[in-house]
Amino acid sequence: MALSPSEVARLAALARIDLTEEELAELAPQLDVILDAVAEVSRVAGPDVVPMSHALPLTNVFRPDVVRPSLPVEAVLAGAPAAEDGRFRVPRVLDEEA
Amino acid sequence: MTPSVLRLTAAELGARIAAGELTAVEAAQAHLDQIGRVDGDVRAFLHTDAEWSLAQARAVDARLAAGEQLGPLAGVPIAVKDIFCTAGVPTTCASRILEGWRPPYDATVIERVRAAGLVMIGKTNMDEFAMGSSTENSAFQTTGNPWALDRIPGGSGGGSAAALAAFEAPLALGTDTGGSIRQPAAVTATVGVKPTYGGTSRYGVIAMASSLDQPGPCARTVLDAALLHAVMGGHDPMDSTSIDAPVPPVVAAARSGEVRGLRIGVVRELGGEGYAPGVEQRFHEALDVLADLGAEIVEVSCPHFRYGLGAYYLIMPSEVSSNLARFDAMRYGLRVGDDGTASVVEVMRATRGAGFGAEVKRRIIIGTYALSSGYYDAYYGSAQKVRRLIAQDFDAAWERVDVLVSPATPTTAFRKGERIADPLAMYMSDLCTIPSNMAGNASASFPCGLAPEDGLPVGFQVMAPVLADDRLYRVGAALERALAERWGGPLLDRLADGAAGTYLGVATAEGN
Predict the structure, then answer these.
(1) What is the dihedral sign for C-alpha B196, B200, B203, B205?
(2) Omega prior to B156 cis, within 30 of 0
(3) Domain range spanning residue A29?
């Protein structure tokens, strides 16, 4: 299994991370080594083994559907990169030109 | 007075404060002074604020003066890994992407620590988002191992472990996803416990891999760790994976230390090639100590543990790639490239490219790959099956033994820089600790001596079944007492009273 820099670039785009050319060149061989090392994992278990997603047998946890106090708006927006009119201000979401 | 205050255990410090022989303010000030004196060398702390700590201490003194009954740790300073949300106090997870962020709320563990009257003395350094085994992946600074400052203090909780060993705090909070409490404890001669998954609340702890992460206590003694465990632990309705059961009797176990008749299984697969001779030697000497105390030692095979590292490095990055999606530059933290024309996706990409360090990027990309369509079954699906096999190895072992043991990490502290360019070598540090995160059982590291070849600490790992955390403390306390008798005091005395620890300024008169 060999990951090319262009495949790493595609994965980085999926993960919404800009990588420099230098980062791409460094990451691709490192990821190869790691993926080689973990490859044996796919050969260990037979089809009869039930995958385990969690350490505990989990069940849904419910609480009564009642209104509880929440954080004040100012406290939540205090850490925002940008805020306006009591809301988070975000860059344009749509791609088309105005 | 200061060195003697700094050398006290948390239990002793709490008793003196409760008896009115010392105030919480005096205890906090002594530790703040120690941080001021030595942290330029150790660099365990990312953030301290004397006024913040002293205000907490004054409040505790006032509560005690008013006759309020607080627990045995009231007034005792505690260092907090920078992964725990502390209301109004910078919480960065050692990442540029959270630089300067002040959470609007406290983690549940922080609330409990406050309620018990502990005094937070600062936020400690760590690998960025807890990804690493050396604390070198911090975006802000590297931390030295107090035993040898050019060595790593372990990771990801290297700051918390180093703060304990440098006598900057008698207690610390950690989190353990693959060994981040136990491996730093091992290489600094401190005590670190990963509770049973679900035994301590993850609410307000910045998530790395949610099915593996678990907060736990870090301390210099077994009893201190147990006292902190009792404060931290217990059901939390804010964490849907929190176990609704009483905290196991950890404090009683730490006071007892009785191991007669206890069946101890040595994991055959966690030893041999790749393990330093001094690590194996001290580990086997500790086993002899436990046998002399009446424990029954048997060898146990856990054949799937050898695949644990590989499975972990698929499951953990997969969860990482999902969890770290929340750092999207929209609601908190860094935002880069918002020039009025860039789109939200462009801003996200620029921000995450600038705000995440190399190891975080590696893991997000591996996780994205392992979860992508066409590879999911081969990678993530297979890893989940191996996880099942590891849990079954544990279940089979518990039929025969009460606890399992191994070295906590294959080597002593390596030199800074030594493994930074070789991620796989770095990952090997967690070889022994990972299985317990996969299966969710309780596990701990206790000091068991210094390796003859380099004079550096070795950790003895104990693993116990789910919700049998008390057994860890039973074994830890037995070892601690027997070894202290053999050595003439705790292992950390050798640092505090020895030439290598002169810079710490905590030597006792007898030590001099």
Answers:
(1) negative
(2) yes
(3) 5-43
Burial letters A22-41, b for 16+ CB under 10 A, else e: ebbebbbebbeebbebbeeb
Distance from C-alpha of B158 to C-alpha of B397, rounded to nearest angstrom: 31
**pLDDT tens string B183-200:** 999 999 999 999 999 999
Q: For residue range B132-161, list pLDDT tens digits in order.
A: 999 999 999 999 999 999 999 999 999 999
**In this structure, what token pair is assigned to residue B66?**
């008013």
ipTM, interface predicted TM-score of the complex = 0.94
Q: Which amino acid makes up residue A42?
A: S
Closest chain A CA to residue B340: A91
User: What pLDDT score does B280 carry?
Assistant: 98
As a three-state string, the secondary structure of B138-189 is: CCCCCCCECCECCECCCCCCHHHHHHHHCCCCCEEEEECCCCCCHHHHHHHC
- d(CA A19, CA B151) in angstroms, rounded, equals 31
List the 442-481 stretch of B: residues with Cβ below 8 A of A.
466
Whole-model pTM: value is 0.97
Cβ neighbour number for residue B510 with a 10 Å cutoff: 8
> Active site residue: B53, B95, B138, B156, which one?
B156
Contacts of B317 (CB under 8 A, 6+ apart): B363, B364, B366, B367, B370
State the best of B202, B369, B438 to mutate against chain A, taking most chain A CBs within 10 Å: B369
What is the SS3 assignment for B363? helix
Domain extents in chain B = 2-256+263-307+385-504
Residue A24 included in any domain: yes
Q: Which of A30-39, B261-270, B497-506 has the lowest mean pLDDT?
A: A30-39
CA dihedral for B494, B499, B505, B509, sign (positive or negative):
positive
pLDDT for residue B511: 43
- List of residues 6+ apart from B191 with CB closer than 8 A: B185, B217, B218, B219, B220, B221, B222, B224, B225, B444, B445, B446, B447, B476
Enter the CATH code of domain B2-256+263-307+385-504: 3.90.1300.10
Whether B276 has a pLDDT exceeding 90, the answer reads: yes
